[in-house]
Every structure is written in C-alpha cells, then in structure tokens.
Amino acid sequence: MKKGIATVAQLDTFDEFIDARSPAEFEEDHIPGAISCPVLDNEQRAIVGTIYKQQSAFAARRIGAAMVAENIARHLRERFQDKPKDWRPLVYCWRGGQRSGSFVTWLRLIGWDACQLEGGYKNWRRMVVTELETLPQRFDLRVICGATGSGKTRVLEQLAALGAQVLDLEDLAAHKGSVLGALPDRPQPTQKSFETSLYEKLHGFDPERPVFVEAESRKIGRIHLPEGLIAHMRASPCVAIEATRDARIEFLVRDYDYLGRDVPDLQSRIDFLRGLQSNEIIDRWKDLARQHDLPTLYGEFIDLHYDPLYRRSQNRNFARFPDAPSFACDDLTPAGIRELAQRILAAQA
Q1: Between residues 291 and 316, the one the model is more confident about
Q2: Given 37, 93, 145, 238, which residue is catalytic?
Q3: Could you give the CA distance from residue 330 to residue 245 in angstroms, rounded to a whole number?
Q4: Picking from 45-49, 83-87, 224-228, 304-308, which range would have the lowest pLDDT averaged per residue?
Q5: How far apart are CA 131 and CA 67, in angstroms?
Q6: pTM here?
Q7: CA 47 to CA 43: how far, in whole Å?
Q8: Where in the numbering of this chain does the Rhodanese domain appear (predicted)?
Q9: Which residues, including other chains, have CB under 8 Å from residue 161's CB and lie 6 or more apart?
Q10: Which pLDDT belongs to residue 1?
C-alpha cells in the first residue's frame, strides 16, 4: 500500500474506521463498524457548498478549512485521547478527497499510522454493488415458501436458534413484505444501507452449509432485492409450509396485533388495496377494522387477496416449487413453530 493510502481490499488490516462525512451521509449508509466523526456537519457542508457555487473554490476552502480544523480538534480531544501509539485507523469521506485527507494529515502528524481510503465511500459502495451481483450464488439456498400467515419469518428465527444459517431479508429490510408489513417501531433503512447489511450478512455464511431464506417478491416495502439474489432464490430448492386457515388467522392476529391498536393507520393501509379489490370490499374491510374484528378481517384478507396472489406467484416465480417437500401444520403458536422448524431442519439433513 502507498504510504497513508489504503484500498477497500485492505480494510481488515485496520483497528478502526472513521467516517469523516457529514452525519446525513453517514446515516444514509456507511462501512460496517465505522464511527461518525464529521469534519463538516450537515449545516456547515451546505454553507461551504453554497459559497463554492456562488463565490469561488478559494472562498469555500478558506471558510471550510477553519470549520474542518475546529471539528478535527474536537474529535481528537473527545474521541481519541486514549488511543495507543500503535493504533491504526482508516479514514474515509465520499471519494477520498480533502475531508478525509485533512483528518489523516493530523492523525499522522500525531504519530498514528492512519490511512486514507482510496476512492472513499464511493469505492466501498461500488465494491458492494459488484459483489452482490455474484455473491449470493456461492450459497446453497433453501427457500421457505408458504401463504401469508404461515409463520415463515418465525420459522426462520427458530431455524437460526437451532443452529441453521438464516438470511432474514425482512429483518434487514425492517418490513414484513406485504401491504400491511410496515413495522410500527422500525423505519426501513435506505437502499444503500440495506445492501451493505446484506453484503455483510452473506460474507458471514459458510458456503459448505445451506442457507434458509424466505420466499420474497422483488420488493420488501420500498427496498429492492438485488437481481443476483432474487434470481438465485427463484432457481433454488424450496420448502413448502402448508398451514391450516384457522392456524394462520390465529397467527396473524397475534403477529399483527399492533395494527388493531391504530385503526386509522390500518384503514389507510387497507386503502392501498383499492384497484386490486372493489370499493365495496375495501369499505367492508375498513368497517371491520373500526369494529376491531381482526379475525374476520384477516380471514377475508387470506381468502380474497393473499391466497389468490400466492397461488399465482409461486409456480411462476420459483421454478422448483412444484418439487418442494411439504410440511403440514395446524399449530403456529411459538411451540408449534419450534416443532415445525425442527421437522424442516431434520428433513434437510
């Protein structure tokens, strides 16, 4: 490596990653494990950018340098006073320019073997996107299929508890995947952040062991699945959960109990189905929500919306679904799901 410069391939040789970009850039996505030490905060970055456009590059650098020096001094004082002499940090900004370069200059003047990431976050992002085109194909995926309400995500959780390798895409996307799938306490990540988390998760798997993943469409909420992943999922062996209607309704009432606590929100989500269902059905569903009659409401969701979609999509989208081993289930309580996961895992041995 050139002195003071490192590449994306050398990330694992450093003790710490320092993200010198603004807090807004860091929030959108960052290298896993990085700490945010902005040399310009959001407002300062906007100020410098405006001066650059309206006055000159010199005027922007003149005022920006003072801000950068002040912020770096604060980080040195508050964040790094306990670091030993052999500490090796890697600093990055958007494209390996002046923000990270300024930070690295001061760290090296102190005596630390600090390096700047060549190409910055932009190179990291390019690497993630490129890797996700082929990385999923290294793994033996086993796709858990089943109609809505079959407890597929909970089965994945139990498989993980039993020691299986699990790729929980809905957890990474913070969304349950259906029109009603937005979570009440977790906003969805950005697309870039999701893909970074996915990349990190895939790199933690052993290619010699199967990886269980839930059947998904191309989008989970507003998150798009990478084409390399969705294509490999659709060509992989499937496992079919055949749960009874009563068990599914009981499960949905438990698993989506938060929807019943916010009737206006539930009714607004039902409105998203206009155009797919008649106005008469939509109005009836909104009335059932108002009455808190969730068992009847979810039963009609199953009969009129989710099951017809499921029957149309599985054979069309998952080539090996017709050959999938089937696991019948009439109990989707936690104990029933645990037993179901045990049967699925035993059958894969």
Answers
A1: 291
A2: 93
A3: 8
A4: 304-308
A5: 37
A6: 0.93
A7: 6
A8: 17-133
A9: 341
A10: 52
